[in-house]
Design goal:
The complex is a heterodimer of chains A (258) and B (753). Chain A is mostly beta strands and 258 residues long. Helix content of chain A is 7%, strand content 58%. Chain B has a 22-stranded antiparallel beta barrel. Chain B has a six-stranded mixed beta sheet with strand order 9-8-14-15-12-13. In chain B, strands 3-2-5-6 form a four-stranded antiparallel beta sheet, with no helix packed on it. Classes of the chains: A mainly beta (258), B mainly beta (753).
Amino acid sequence: MRTFRFTGLLLLLLVAGCAPDISETEFYKMHPVPGDNASDDVVLIDHVEAGTQLTLVAEEPLGWGFNRFRIEASEGWQSFTPMLVFETQTRIWRSPIEPIMTDDSGVVYAVPPMEDDGTWYLEIDGSTTEGPKSLRTPVAVSEDIWVREGDSSDLIVAWVAPTTPMTGNDAFEVAIYRNENGAFVPVTDASLDLYPYMDMGGGEGHSTPYSAPVHTGNGHYRGDVNFIMSGGWDMTVIVTKDGQTENIVFAGFTVKQG
Amino acid sequence: MMVNRIPIALLALLALSLFWMTPSAAAQDTKPLRGVVLDELSGQPVPMATVIVTGTQYGTAANLEGQFELLLRPEDHMLRISAIGYASLIIHITPDMRQGGSLTARLEPSVISVDEVVVAGNRSRVDDPSASAHNPNATEDLLDRIPGADFIQRANFAWEPVIRGMNGGQVGVVIDGMKVVGACIDRMDPTSAYVEVENLERLELTKGGFDLNMGSQIGGTVNLMTERPSFEEDPFISTEVGFESASMLRRGRVVTGMAKGKTSVRGSWSYRIADDFTAGGGQSLTNSGYEKNNYKIDVTRMLNHAHQVTGSFLADNAWGVGYPVLLMDATLAKARIGSVTHNWERHMAKRGLKTAETRIYHNTVNHWMDDYQRDVFDRPVMRGMYMPMYGKTQTSGLISRWGFRFGPSRMNLTLDAYQTDSFGDMWMFSVFENIQDMYLLNLGDIRVRHGALAADWTTPLADNLIGRVNVRWDYSTRDVLRDEAVSILQGRWGDEDLARTYSFGNVSGTLDYALNAITRLRLSLAHVSRLPTHVENYGHYVYNYVDGFFYTGNPNLKPERSNQIEIGLERWTSRYGLTASVFGNRIQDYIVGLSDTGLSDNEIYRFRVYQNASSASLVGFEVSAVADIARGFSVAGTSSYTRGQNHELDEPMFLIPPLSAQLAMRYDRPSYWAEIESRMAMPQERVSRQIAVEDVTDGYFVINVRGSYTLQNATSLRFGIDNLFDTLYHEHLSFGNLPNEGRNVYLSVSHTR
């Protein structure tokens, strides 16, 4: 009997010793559900013809700035060159291609801001075993923050990398051009500094560790940025050329959890 | 939520304790216990040993031949036998002893200063001549009475121990020798909070780096030794309810246990709830309440006369813990601590292996904080955003101790190994619509693996001289396992591999010289190191509430190295006792936070990185004394002082307590006692301006009175008033100048059957 009483008492102690359920507290009610950082690919061309197939996929929806494509072609395709084309009633403009930016995931194209009314097309000129082959399809290219023009100069600064800013150490790269009558000439002799900044509201904010980008060729400048936390950031690229300094601000981009 | 059940359960348990269990049949016996106290190594009598019933001051003293007589009372359960130069001994009172039996107590020589608090019954007594018979409501109350021990106070809850001006990673806090790592990156959950008084058998505190058996620490170690099931007591249930006015604290405790055959079980449960507390002058501190429960279950199985196995499980939950001077409060803190222990003892062994204890353990700590109850616009930093924080740790380990005897010498070997995984993060949700949610990974799955071997050798060098050498070798590896944290830290430090390995040795030595039978001198030297904590190595922008800086860990930190000296004196006669010690501590590769590269162009966000940038030194003293001035009357006092100097920055070290003292007068009779006590501290004007942005703290003087009365042997009333004159003051180590409680009237009733 005594053992029974004792056991009952221990069980009572256990029940009485429970703690609040954390999931019922405000802590979790207001906590975000961790999201999936991976974005869906955008299939731009999926052409099947006479036993050949060519698929062109963008990692993100197309926008101003550098876009990464992934191209998968079957054996029937001998060569191919994709091209982004912007057409208005008065002119046709072809985006600069930078094959040197080819990486494991494909080719990178720079798309400058185009403020005229017009239509973007994705074209592929190439050849198959059957002969020359061209594909053309309209695509949507949205206005985005990844290309900025100087206020007091004709410099165009395009954000190249990271394409998806993440917390942690990122290689940071921009390409700088000068717009000379529609021709985008790489600027190779500028000196750069950075000022990454997180606005935390209420007039408060802070920066994060970085190294100033240096020229690596063809108008590209590379450094490092170590985003210490996820959230909304601004990046000021301070470009000095010919004794003049211009602040180019990429404002309001999101750094995701790495 | 289970909270509403608790008061009902408490009332039910109290009713059970009063009417359910059969009263024990211990009868008053007029025959005294006769005993003799011997030196375990030499077999010689130990003169002037003190024999006290634990939890009281009822007892006697041995004569010059080590002999004593003591009439035991029905409510007495344990004896504590102590003498200068020896480790104290706890003995469970058996029925034979109550009936005029005999006892031979063998004390082991101790040549290191270990302050020990033994807890039993309704009161505790500190192994120091000046320690008062205090009513412990929490473990902090026990530590608070040891000279040289102080606390960092962040709230009216869970104070963090400071020993001789050392804190944080410089001080080790273990539970039964087990490593338990707090989950809060801001150290809001010190390990000492997990052991409630009803589960504490005794508390051992070593100051400085002279005892290396529990860990490599330069500040000292607090070992919270928990109660085990007993085979020598009748089934019992003990209950206590209490109330304190300053925070309207209500609490209850239940402890029960029984033994049947070769199995003994012990269980305990306690609950506390406190509202906002009131400081001196009636100042109410909002966001200072808390709620907490704790339970522990132990089962011991006696395999044979030499072997025992004990399984233990301890759970501690605290929620709604307010931190009035900080930005946020603890939503919930949970600790789960489990262990299996094997004990072996060769009782009659004169040589060779005598004892062995091996413990395998696992514990988890989870800690949630948020500021949803705060006005986030009304604060100097992080304005307009909510910042829920989460942290967790998981530790598994093994600790094995082997005790050898070689004639008059003894040696203890310790193997200590554990692995800890830690995680901590913080979200920031701005109330401004244009500000995105932010996320900060403070600890990205840090894994620490640690192994250590320690040897402790004590041997007589001459008739009146004992020597002790303690050596320890530590090997620790640590790494960052989460990719995000790896990338962040690689970007900061430029290292491909963040894994680090530390390996180093420590050594301490003590000479204990007996000037005569009642006076001993002790000289201790130590060359010790302590490892960087996992936060100091790999923390990422950890906000420090002391100085308002964000701290970044440094994988390249070297261990802090320390050379220490201590000279101690102990003298204990039948009329008075005196202990005193002076110490010096020179620290090299002192780990502090120094300014990081400019990440902010304002004074709101300030950044630091941990570096081995400084050397520092500490000197100080502790002195305490007690004197019997008349029958039942005694006077006791303590004083301690530490002076710390950061040599590289040429400024005082931070978090150094000022000169402080306590003086008490007691009157103690078998069924009641009373005490009036004064506590005082001088102003602390030696403050750190560069490292910690401290301010000068005023001195204070407060008076406390307390007493206890025992009714019919089994029921006790305890009562008292702390801070009698309602003085408004704060300790130098209080964060944000958090004031101490004002006048606090308390009352508790306990009953044992």
